[in-house]
């Protein structure tokens, strides 16, 4: 399954170099793997067997904690502590898919949702590479990777609010597009919907498995559920997708809250720790590895680390294996 253009060739990836001052990518002697910024591409060099986690740390009042060092963290894979081999705390550019519900029920909501999506980009790292997918019964790649706000705005305004909600299909197709075409290691999906999936060929379980393939994206979801017939099931699905991938699901009471939430998401993404480790036991293709990360530091009685809950090793070999 893939995202496709809308009755025309899909937009080409914008290869132009970003303008403005570049964010420094080094952090003292802790960063043994320095970022490669050649040709305008910002990626971390990492060992082929290394698992890279992007983690947000909050205290018991949900304040983001940004001053921890490597020694504060312990990574567990399948319950066993792992050795951290790389550690960065720097505003890393991301490859981001903005995936917006374009079903009939979204017609009156799209204007404010579109503005929130653009403000997410404005609040994010200027070196992020972003694509736009609008979906109803099908998903459409209305703008491929770019950091051009005008192009993103034009893609978001391709509103044809009709039909059903093939949310799982759209998320899986967007994750596939990130895997196949993203030049950046850190990947995110920003998902906005107002209802329950009612048109996908993928199930929730299948969608989650595709998202949890090694190197998959974190999903930040906004559910504008209001008084829909089945808000509990829709809410639960978004919560599961976000939690399993290291993101967050938000459920605003009013449409006016969506813009503030989008800026909160941008702040969360920009203040994460990148933690790399090499699994103690060799990976087996298709095998699920459970992940837990703990953080402890003086002055903090309780810290919560949010990252993906696990991954399916050997993403290429495992892809579609459940179908």
Characterize this entry briefly.
This protein is of the alpha/beta class.
User: Which overall shape is indicated by the principal axes computed on the Cα atoms?
Assistant: globular
Taking pLDDT < 50 over at least 5 consecutive residues as the criterion, the unreliable ranges are 7-39, 316-323
CATH topology description of the largest domain: Rossmann fold
How many domains comprise the coordinates? 2
- CATH superfamily heading of the largest domain: von Willebrand factor, type A domain
Query: What is the first-to-last residue Cα distance?
Result: 12 Å
What is the strand arrangement across the widest sheet?
A: 9-8-7-10-11-12
Can you characterise this structure?
The protein has helices at 110-123, 149-156, 167-181, 204-211, 231-245, 258-270, 315-318; strands at 35-36, 43-44, 51-59, 73-77, 80-82, 84-88, 95-101, 129-135, 139-146, 187-193, 218-223, 249-250, 273-277, 288-295, 303-306, 310-312. Helix 1 (110-123) packs parallel to helix 6 (258-270) and helix 4 runs parallel beside helix 5 (231-245). A six-stranded mixed beta sheet has the order 9-8-7-10-11-12, sandwiched between helices. A four-stranded antiparallel beta sheet has the order 6-13-3-15, with no helix packed on it. It folds into two domains: 46-90 and 278-318, no CATH class; 95-270, Rossmann fold (3-Layer(aba) Sandwich). The protein is globular. The protein has 323 residues and is α/β, with parallel strands linked by helices. Strand 4 and strand 5 (80-82) form a beta hairpin.
């Amino acid at each position: 399954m893939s995202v496709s253009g809308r009755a025309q060739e899909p937009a080409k990836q914008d290869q132009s170099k970003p303008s403005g001052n570049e964010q420094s990518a080094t952090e003292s002697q802790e960063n043994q793997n320095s970022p490669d910024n050649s040709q305008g591409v910002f990626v971390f060099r990492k060992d082929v067997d290394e698992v890279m986690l992007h983690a947000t740390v909050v205290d018991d009042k949900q304040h983001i904690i940004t001053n921890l060092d490597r020694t504060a963290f312990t990574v567990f894979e399948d319950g066993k502590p792992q050795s951290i081999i790389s550690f960065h705390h720097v505003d890393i550019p991301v490859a981001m898919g903005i995936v917006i519900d374009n079903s009939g029920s979204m017609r009156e909501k799209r204007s404010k949702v579109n503005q929130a999506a653009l403000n997410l980009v404005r609040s994010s790292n200027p070196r992020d590479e972003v694509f736009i997918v609008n979906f109803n019964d099908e998903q459409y790649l209305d703008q491929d990777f770019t950091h051009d706000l005008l192009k993103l705005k034009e893609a978001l305004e391709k509103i044809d609010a009709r039909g059903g909600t093939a949310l799982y299909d759209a998320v899986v197709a967007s994750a596939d597009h990130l895997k196949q075409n993203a030049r950046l290691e850190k990947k995110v999906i920003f998902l906005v919907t107002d209802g329950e999936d009612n048109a996908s060929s993928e199930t929730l379980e299948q969608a989650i498995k595709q998202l949890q393939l090694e190197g998959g994206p974190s999903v930040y979801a906004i559910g504008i559920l209001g008084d829909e017939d089945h808000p509990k099931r829709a809410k639960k699905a978004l919560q599961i997708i976000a939690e399993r991938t290291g993101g967050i699901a938000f459920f605003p009471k009013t449409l006016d809250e969506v813009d503030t939430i989008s800026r909160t998401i941008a702040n969360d993404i920009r203040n994460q720790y990148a933690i790399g480790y090499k699994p103690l036991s060799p990976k087996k293709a298709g095998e699920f590895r459970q992940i837990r990360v703990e953080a402890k530091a003086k002055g903090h009685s309780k810290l919560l680390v949010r990252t993906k809950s696990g991954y399916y090793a050997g993403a290429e070999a495992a892809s579609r294996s459940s179908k």
